Amino acid sequence: MSPASGAAPLLGLYRLLLHQQLTKGRLVLTGTLSGLALLVTVLIARNALPSERIEGTVGFLSVFGLALMVPILSLVLASSSLGQLVEDQTLVYLWLRPNPRWVLALAAWLASATVAVPVSVVPLVVASAIGTGGDGRTMGAVAAAMALAAVAYTGLFTLVGLLIRRSLIWGLAYLFIWELFVARVGQGAARLSINTYPASVLSHITHIELPQADRGFAYAVVIPLLAAALSVALTAWRLSRADVA
């Protein structure tokens, strides 16, 4: 089936999967994390010296935003995109439709990213504005880095949700053990960490040095996009070989 002929099924599946993303629990989680980000940046703005506000805000958002808020929200949203259907044993109804598997894989990722990007970017950009007094460079850097991270993480966790039962628990283990610990103590591990690439984008634009954020700018942009594309391709491949009935 050509891409053009797959457009209508893609839109239908996208709308269906997008609808299941918006739940009360996820809105509460988003509000809680956003509130914490805003609260801390208010404290930074009030207590830090003017010359230290940008560096303090970027340092905080690189940890809380890139290492915690964005990946956790992406995990919660993306792992359930197909994972919830697997748990409910309803994936078979979508799997049996006469559509290419890439259509279902792409729709699942798009539905997750559609929610994850704005709920990650908007509150963190507002937080950066509060912490820096409206510094445009920092706000733009935060928007770019957080969006890039959300795109990559939703791709990865869409695949994880399909492959692994209880993917939320395993995803959290990956984030806290690999991304927050192992990848921060060695250059080799850091290169296999999604976090270091958007962090490098944040560092390049703001000219503020961050831990393990030493990737070249082009690589820092391209690698997360490639990770998302590869994850979607692997999701489609797995769907084409899965026995979900």
Query: How many H/I helical runs?
Result: 10
Question: What is the tally of beta strands?
Answer: 0
Largest sheet geometry: none
| Shape summary | globular
The class by helix and strand makeup works out as: mainly alpha
Terminal Cα span: 23 Å
Q: Helicity range of the residues? A: over 70%
Q: Compute the gyration radius: what is it? A: 18 Å
What pattern of helices and strands is seen along the backbone?
Answer: HHHHHHHHHH
Mean pLDDT: 88
**Uncertain parts:** none
Strand content of the residues, in percent? under 5%
Present the secondary structure layout.
Elements lengths: L6 H13 L4 H24 L5 H36 L2 H5 L5 H32 L3 H28 L3 H13 L7 H4 L5 H11 L10 H25 L4
Helix pairs in contact: 1-5, 2-3, 2-5, 3-5, 3-6, 3-7, 5-6, 5-10, 6-9, 6-10, 9-10
Give an account of the 3D structure:
The protein is 78% helix and 0% strand. The chain has 245 residues and is mainly alpha-helical. The longest helix has 36 residues, at 53-88. The model has no long low-confidence stretch (mean pLDDT 88).
Concise description?
By secondary structure, this protein is mainly α. The chain contains ten helices and no strands.
Features:
245 residues, mainly alpha, 0% strand
